[in-house]
Amino acid sequence: MTKNRLYIAIAGLLIFTSCGEDYLKTHSYTELNESTFYNTPTDAYNGLVGVYDGFQRMYSAAFAVPTITEVFSDNAFGGGGAADGYGGQLMDEFDQQRSPSDIKIIEDDWINYYAGIFRCNALLGNLDRVKWAGADTLKNQYAAEARVMRAIAYLDLVRLFENVVLLDKPSSENLPQANPDDVYKLIADDLVFAIQNLPAVPYAKQVPAQHGRITKWAAEALLARAFLFYTGYYGKADLAGVTKQQVLDNLEDLIQHSGHDLVPDFATLWPAASGANYAGERNIENILNIKATYTGNYNGDMDGNQWMVMFGLRDGNYPPYGQGWGFGTVNPKLWNAYSDQDTRKVASIISIADENLTAAGFGNGGQREYTGYYTKKYTPMSSLVNGVAKGLAEQLGGVNFQIGQYQDFIMVRYADVLLMAAELGSANAQSYFDKVRQRAYKTNFSSIPVTPDNIMTERRLEFAGEGIRYWDLLRQGVNVAAATIAETDTPVLSGGVSAKVTIKAENIISKRGFQQIPNTQITLSNSVLKQNPGW
Amino acid sequence: MKMKRIYNRLCLASVFFLVTFAVSAQRKVVTGTVTDGTGSPLPGVNVIIKGTVTGTVTDSNGAFSIEAGENDVITTSFIGFKPKEVPVGAQTKIDIVMEEDIATLSEVVVIGYGEQKKILNTGANLQVKGEDLQKLSTNNTLQALQGQTPGVQITTGSGQPGSAVRVVIRGQGTINGSGPLYVVDGVLMTDINFLSPSDIESIDVLKDAASAAIYGSQGASGVIIVTTKKGKGAGKSQLTFDAFYGVQNVARKMPMLNAEQYAVIMNEAAVNSGGQPIFNDSQMTAIANGATDWSNPRLDNSQIKAMHGGTNWLDKMFVKNAPTQSYAVGLTGGSENSTYSSGLSYQSQAGIIGGRGNSYYERYNFRFNSDHKLYGDILRFGQTLNFAYTQNNGIQTGGIYGSSVLPAMGASPFLPMYDSLGNFWDNSLSKWLPGEANPYAQMVESNQNRNFSQRIVGNVYFEVQPISRLKYKTMLSIDASSNDSHTFTPVYKLSQYSFNDTTRVSQNMGRGRNLIWDNTINYSFNLNNDHHFEVMAGTSAIYGTGVSMYGANYNLAFNTLENAWLSNALNKTKANRMTINGGENDDNKVLSYYGRLHYNFRETYLLNMTFRADASSNFAAGHRWGYFPSVSAGWVLTNERFMESARNIFDNLKLRASWGQVGNRNIPSFRYLSPMTYSGGAYPFGASEGSVTPGAYQSRLSNPYVKWETSEQTDIGFDARMLGGKVNVAFDWYKKITKDWLTRSPVVATAGADAPWINAGSVNNTGIELMISYSNQIGDLRYTVSANGAHNVNKVTQIPTFDGTIHGETNVLFVNADEFYRAQSGYPMGYFYGLKTNGIFQTQEDVLNYTDKDGKVIQPTAKPGDLRYVDTNGNGVIDANDRTMIGNPNPTYIFGLNIQLSYKAFDFALVGNGVTGNDIAQSYRNPGGYQNYTRYILDRWHGPGTSNTVPRVDLEGTNWAKFSDIYLQKGDYFRISNVTLGYDFSKLMKVKAFSQLRLYASALNLFTFTKYNGMDPEVGYGNNANSTSNSNINTGTNPTAYSSGIDLGYYPRPRTFLIGLNVKF
After folding, report:
1. Taking 60 as the threshold, does the pLDDT of residue B795 lie above it?
2. Do A211 and B574 touch (CB under 8 A)?
3. Record: contact B690-A396, CB cut-off 8 A
4. pLDDT per residue over B140-164, tens digit each?
5. Do the Cβ atoms of B867 and B927 come closer than 8 Å?
6. Which of A1, A416, B205, B828 is the most exposed place for a label (fewest CB within 10 A)?
């Protein structure tokens, strides 16, 4: 009896212990992982969409490239709220002393770009695992799209920071910064690959539901953009073996075969400037948009154009304009640079006085570096609902105006292609140049010669507010850029009180026009990453 | 129960002994009853005539009858009680009240999967009785432990009711914030917030690795074993009722600038920044007089006049006399074969910030424990059950984002509370800081929530003793919980930034379940009577799972929190404004084998060994198993002949030494893989707005090699009991090495995805602990004084990241703040990292005279009034490379003091605790700008000679933008945490309806001795909030939870005055 009880006890233990390792096998109920993912072309497509999302996130910070490059340039001042920190002024004046604590001011961009590059590299590295079943064209197309996004990321990074880490596959190693020449080489290779592998689908045959996909035409235009900056800033003859003639040939190909053209009326490119006449985000002129819509939320879905809020009027909703943070107040010099005959003037810039917004209640008390001018191309919008001004983003269903802005950023449009082709010495340079100006001046048009200076002046007027001006200045050399951007005691109002903006050329020159490497990243790398000179 | 059996056996033995040798003489018969301090009869007490072997034992009613002479002295002795002597004299009836003796030699301590006589225990354990905790009148069990347990640092998470308590045993060993393992009646868990102090019988803290090693993979941060009240056996039925009610107030409020002082400082800051004064002379005069509309067109003169120096926002935030209360009924009893213990309690506490509507906690607890014997000693079964129902609501505290306290310190005194209609003030059209929101309104509007949770912790066990001394026990435990919460956000507009356009609701539900099946087999035997062996082997399986669901929507049909449910949301079309999430948690499974050997030779030479093997599903196959051995030994010196001469000093002296390894498996599952995430991967292709195409991406880097964290500890100590039990001393020295921390370290951004989990780094904690108590009696005055202290040195020894550092997060101390705490080889965990200062430049000459060895001016751009930074690397410039260790948030000493007095029916207690050697980083505002300051800014530099410690003010925050030692203060404090005076009316009463009827009054947190100028030096906040978006770290076990001592507008612990009642029938 006693023994039996003992056996039962021991048996109890043994039954239990026989479960063993099988017991420990678990699987996730809610998550896929990388070892089981890249199987089918559908997986690859989902991965490609994830890359596009990463591409969008590169432009999701408040201080994203479209906003900060306007502030770097002579187009705009730091602005912001009268009681805000002085980060905007630091960027505008290239002066760390303006805000000593901002030692990683555009770290969000650095992080977002590398997160985007990681997604490109992760997809590129896994495409071979997918069972394509003969659909190799599709594979190459996905690869080309991912490589264009990688090229865009590196072109922004290298122009912002110059000395950046170069990755063509995922790595969590602590890598030093690469020679900028090698970065441009990767950009050129990626874009050339894309030009060779993307199908030449003219605008009219593109599928509207796929709007936002990268096309061969976008790659051709971006190659020219990279070429012009690299050869300009560094005084090189070619871009990693890509010659000026090749670049020009690509642009001529685009002009002849893409089906893209200018929209007839400049203002219709911009919703706030054209109202009901808006040409829409998908129009014949836009070659590459970074898509945005109002569906974003605070649970990780970032679909909105968050940087655009920075440009908005600080004080509230004044239809058709919506509330923003008054960052990047427009320099009066830019307003004055336009002739009154130029239709781009009022399509590009909000003039508080000329549009009589003060009468509507607009006040500048909360605004720093108020100039009376704001960017119109990218600005939140509002309209009256039962007599109360409400943001359009919220009206459409956005969570709020800060994350609900749905206007796409136009990364490449046809006017840029025409002006780049003219600058690169197209045989049709004069007609391309005239075409852009004709649209701007309409009946008041009179032709002027297509000189480099005239092209540069025209680019300033055509692309104001579009994040292009600073690179155009810098590629003429840092001295030209610094001299153009410098300001001496320019009067503004900060918190309603007279103040002055002073930008010293030497601050820009000492930094060679580049930005600080985020200090956090330098410390994380144990100083394997080196700070840029001047910072 | 085991204790009870030991009593019985000892009693039986003594009966036999005494009866056999009893001699009869010429005597009278003396009868009487022996009771304990509460009036309960004590059965089985030895009653002996002093100096003889004549004696008897009390029966089940505590009664005895003995023959004695008039000159005899009756002595009574009983395990767990102090011996008592009563001269017989002329008496024939003698009732004896015995006093409990907590520190008797036969005291039993609770160890992993069992109990052990304290005298035989070789670990560094510590037991606190439940009744000692209950005397402290707290609603939180762990808070009551504060100051009672040397080597255990207990810090209140915040003064908010129901907030968690941070427990660190013997210094921070791990970086990922793992607290100790709690074992409640055998059920393993990570927190015991749900328990009512009234249900607790005892708490045993296992501090050394040898004691904790039986829990293997979960004991790396120490083990706290909680035993809930059990029935006491035959004749001990008892009904108890305990209650207290108190009011709470803020103990120390931060003094902020009033309107006039604020205006002066703002003017000065503007001028120091090269601008004009903001307010001109007439405005200043007006502000001083409190009567002008200098600022806001919507504020009329009478309102400004009524401001009297502006709004003191902290006054608005704190409520007066917030109630706290507790009621508990307990019932225990049973028969010889069956015992039970049951309890029902209710506790509630309102917060001193915002009061009940904003910050509140209440809890109902129910307990039923029983134990039954069948077929003699062969079969035993029983069950424990603890149920808790909790309801709470709270505000956010701690960090700089979302906190309700911090904005109240930064808000300008100009800002009014209400507009002329009595609504919360909307500041968005103000001319002064239109972005600044009414902080009280912000708290009320954005913290409308109710949380409910239910939890059942319990088990059923069977124990079979098939042959003598062999016990097999199987126990199935469950820890099941469910919770639900909902929030409501009304429409409001308080400033340009603080607004909500449409009502919002969110609703959250979840359940979790942890099943544990333990099987143990125990066998004890003796060899030659001198060698005693006890072996135990066991297995354990843990299976944890749960599901959760979350929904949010907007535009509600109703406008109150109580109607805020998803069904009442009117939005049906705008998908992005609805959120629906839900899923099953990944399974958490653990499989374990363990064994233990206790050996002793004549209870003099002691040896204990344990071994545990654990496998966890958290790790990849091949890295699942961890092995955790321990060995400990003890030597009871007082049993040796050579100590006989010292017996008049030492009742008992035991030396002990131990070594062991324990583990930590605390990471979420599947961290060895890289997940493909769809959430947040979509892109809005297409020409129309509002639709997105789903996409996926790898969101986290994988680490297939991630494995256990291991903690290894050596402990040497002694326990001594001296002078007839009057003096008790326990001493321990330890060295704890924790290696292979499970953590995530921020990775370089070029890695492109969230940081992987890694095994990184090790830390040493070395320290000593001492506890001394002295008890004595002068006439009717009995007293006990006990003091304890611990000294710990924490040093990180190795970190295998690129730069040997795990960086602290940025944006913690203020917006845009750089990292200021970190874990780095050679330094204490979470040490403060910044610039050293050396006074303030009084004049321009001072600036020019501050040169390096080559005569180069070190701070050429500094102005008089700026900080003089120390050029620690001597390179002639002040930059990030001059940062160094400027403070340590870890205390070097923690200590406690406990005084108990009783005089007749009066009792008095005083409990205090404190820490020294730590620094606190304090920041209540962003550098520069227009936020309000504390009044300490009035000591700023404003001209040569005015200050050498507080720099000048300016709008850029020049002297505050870089983290330096001006942010640090000493965190030393000693707090009188409890003073209680009680009176037991049952001692006055003739009718013994009550064995206790005690009324008492207590003051909690009565006074704090400290030089720290914040509201409370006991800052339980480290940067435990979720990481900011740009840090590359997602939620999960928080990898930076090692930070501590950060005061960012802390919710202070209240000062409470309460009255209470203890009734025992």
Report:
1. yes
2. no
3. yes
4. 888 888 888 888 888 877 888 888 7
5. no
6. A1
